[in-house]
Amino acid sequence: MSTMKAAVVRSFTDDLDVTEIEVPTPGPYEALVRVEYSGVCHTDLHAAHGDWPVKPTPPFVPGHEGAGTVVAIGDRVTRVAEGDRVGNAWLWSACGECEYCETGWETLCPNQRNGGYAVDGSFGQYMLVDSRYCPIIPDGVSMAAVAPILCAGVTVYKGLKRTDTKPGDWVLVSGVGGLGHIAVQYAIAMGRRVAAVDVDESKLALARKHGAEVTVNASMSDDPAAELQGLTGGGVHGALVTAVNGHAFPQAVGALRRGGTVSLVGLPPESFPLDIFTTVLFGLTVRGSIVGTRKDMAEAIDFFVRGKIDPTYTVRPLDDINAIFAEMQAGRIDGRVVMDMS
Ligand code: 8ID
Ligand code: ZN
């Protein structure tokens, strides 16, 4: 039996256990990947804390922004070969046969399995991927820099598409963390004008660095929605909420222009009141958006390969995972943390 170092969640209340565990064996359609880098997503923190109604079952290894190289393949694998550069993803696999898979909505497949949640993820030196669903990483790109694209990138790219905006329109990015700072960049690359909201000045500075024209600090403003309405000449055409705080959600709805659409992406385990009168009279759309399909992933990676997206990230060792989670919880991370698995 060969072993590897991995960060294991043993309970929702304890620190992760960085320890030696068995290297998994690839089954049919699966490939074994030597992980080089893995981004740390706030979803991993929600998973480790058991924040959501559908909880993962400890012990498990989080991580769904892993980038590495295929070192072995199981039976019936045709899409990848040993030596190929691939990643894992939140959409680890789907059934391929249900009404959602059949209609281009595999992200809604009720039989999907999620990386770092139902299947062990990328917070370890090796991981399994489903060869039919894993993102393919082109040659020549930095494995550390591409890691945040595999969840943060695809999620905000899809969420921005779902705002139903067009070039020249205003888009609000609420929450400029790992997802949000990349959302600013996709929005600019897609020709949108960006307004950004956060509760931390350094996050707003990062948003401006990446092209946001308007920034509002929600912790300093009496009415961030009204301020955004004024600064964008009548409201934003679309909004993407990545904030991990329920208060940001009605603020984003309140910042919409008439006819606007908000894509909800952040997942604080909370709810928020939706004002029926303004939603109806102003013809607003409020929708959820969850990661992206394999096609969205390939498109998101292509923006990155063409140099349109430049994630801000810090490389740290896997041994730092508990400190990284504590900093994330306190909102002290600029951009993304990417862990080096070597
Ligand atoms: O597919 C999806 N829907 C998807 C995919 C990936 C991640 C959803 N997520 C979810 C995560 O589970 C998490 O709930 O998106 C959320 C954001 O993930 P992240 O970007 O990885 O988290 P972060 O780096 O900690 O950034 C959070 C940002 O929110 C700001 C913080 O300052 C930070 O910049 N924020 C907070 I906390 N309160 C805010 C507020 N009231 C706020 N920004 C604006 N207003
Ligand atoms: Zn994620």
What does the model show?
It comes from Cellulomonas composti. InterPro entries: ADH-like_C, ADH-like_N, ADH_Zn_CS, ER, GroES-like_sf, NAD(P)-bd_dom_sf. The protein has helices spanning 42-49, 99-102, 143-146, 152-161, 178-189, 201-209, 224-231, 248-254, 276-281, 294-305, 321-329, and strands at residues 3-8, 17-22, 30-40, 66-73, 85-87, 91-93, 113-114, 126-130, 170-174, 193-198, 214-217, 236-241, 256-264, 285-288, 313-317, 336-340. By secondary structure, the chain is an alpha/beta fold. The protein has 2 domains: 3-151 and 292-340, Medium-chain alcohol dehydrogenases, catalytic domain (Quinone Oxidoreductase, Chain A, domain 1, Alpha-Beta Complex), CATH 3.90.180; 154-288, Rossmann fold (3-Layer(aba) Sandwich), CATH 3.40.50.720. The strands form 4 sheets. Strands 3, 4, 5, 8, 15 and 16 form a 6-stranded mixed sheet that branches. Strand 10 (193-198), helix 6 (201-209) and strand 11 (214-217) form a beta-alpha-beta unit. Helix 4 crosses helix 5, helix 4 crosses helix 10 (294-305) and helix 7 (224-231) runs parallel beside helix 8. The model has no long low-confidence stretch (mean pLDDT 98). Residues 41-43, 46, 151, 155, 174-180, 197-200, 203, 218, 242-245, 247-248, 265-268, 289-291, 328, 331, 333 line the site of nicotinamide-8-iodo-adenine-dinucleotide.
Query: What's the CATH class label of the largest domain?
Result: Alpha Beta
Total number of distinct structural domains: 2
How would you characterize the largest beta sheet? 6 strands, mixed
CATH level 4 superfamily of the largest domain: Medium-chain alcohol dehydrogenases, catalytic domain
Based on secondary structure, the structural category is alpha/beta
Which descriptor suits the 3D outline?
Answer: globular
Helix fraction bin: 25-40%
Looking at the structure, the CATH topology of the largest domain is Quinone Oxidoreductase, Chain A, domain 1
- Using the CA coordinates, give the radius of gyration: 20 Å
Order of helices and strands: EEEHEEEHEEHHEHEHEHEHEHEHEHE
User: How much strand?
Assistant: 25-35%
Average pLDDT metric: 98
Low-confidence stretches: none
N-end to C-end Cα span: 20 Å
Bound molecules: nicotinamide-8-iodo-adenine-dinucleotide, zinc ion
- E-strand count: 16
Write the CATH architecture name of the largest domain: Alpha-Beta Complex
How many helices? The count is 11
